């Protein structure tokens, strides 16, 4: 069973980075196999939150490279993202679990220098609630 927890942690971690991964499917399968819901949610939340910290850290140091030729983002894109983040504030980090835009949100939080403690609290809470919802869906699923 420890292998299952490690796979879930790794899947959740990668799903939170800019890589296309989906940990909910693995969580659902492990729940179907009779895994402990509380332990599985804790492992998935920890992995996913730590993966988001990687994005936060990348965002924190990203602008040091903005004058390089290979830099991916245009200044207008960064300014637009910063304006959006300022408009909705740090509370928007509760939505870092969203499949579209959630990873970018954690990167922008690093650029905007959101305190790591606040980042961990809001991102962890949102991601934990998402995994709890998977537990409830699994319990009510006819599959």
Your description of this structure?
This protein has one domain. The chain is built from six helices and no strands. The chain has helices spanning 2-16, 24-32, 37-62, 75-88, 102-111, 116-140. Helix 2 crosses helix 6 (116-140) and helix 4 packs across helix 5 (102-111). The longest helix has 26 residues, at 37-62. The two termini are 22 Å apart.
Mean pLDDT, rounded to whole units? 91
Domain count: 1
In sequence order, what are the helices and strands, one letter per element?
Answer: HHHHHH
Give the biggest beta sheet.
none
Shape: elongated
Fold topology:
Elements: H1 2-16, H2 24-32, H3 37-62, H4 75-88, H5 102-111, H6 116-140
Helix pairs in contact: 1-2, 1-3, 2-6, 3-5, 3-6, 4-5
Brief summary:
This protein has 143 residues and is an all-alpha fold.
Which tags fit this structure?
143 residues; single chain; 6 helices
């Amino acid at each position: 069973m420890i292998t299952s927890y490690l796979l879930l942690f790794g899947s959740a971690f990668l799903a939170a980075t800019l890589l296309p991964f989906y940990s909910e499917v693995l969580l659902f399968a492990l729940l179907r196999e009779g895994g402990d819901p509380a332990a599985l949610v804790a492992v998935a939340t920890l992995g996913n939150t730590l993966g988001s910290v990687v994005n936060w850290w990348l965002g924190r140091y990203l602008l040091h490279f903005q004058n390089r030729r290979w830099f991916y983002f245009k200044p207008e894109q960064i300014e637009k993202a910063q304006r959006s983040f300022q408009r909705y504030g740090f509370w928007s980090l509760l939505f870092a679990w969203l499949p579209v835009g959630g990873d970018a949100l954690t990167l922008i939080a690093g650029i905007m220098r959101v305190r790591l403690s606040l980042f961990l609290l809001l991102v962890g809470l949102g991601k934990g609630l998402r995994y709890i919802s998977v537990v409830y869906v699994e319990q009510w699923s006819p599959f």
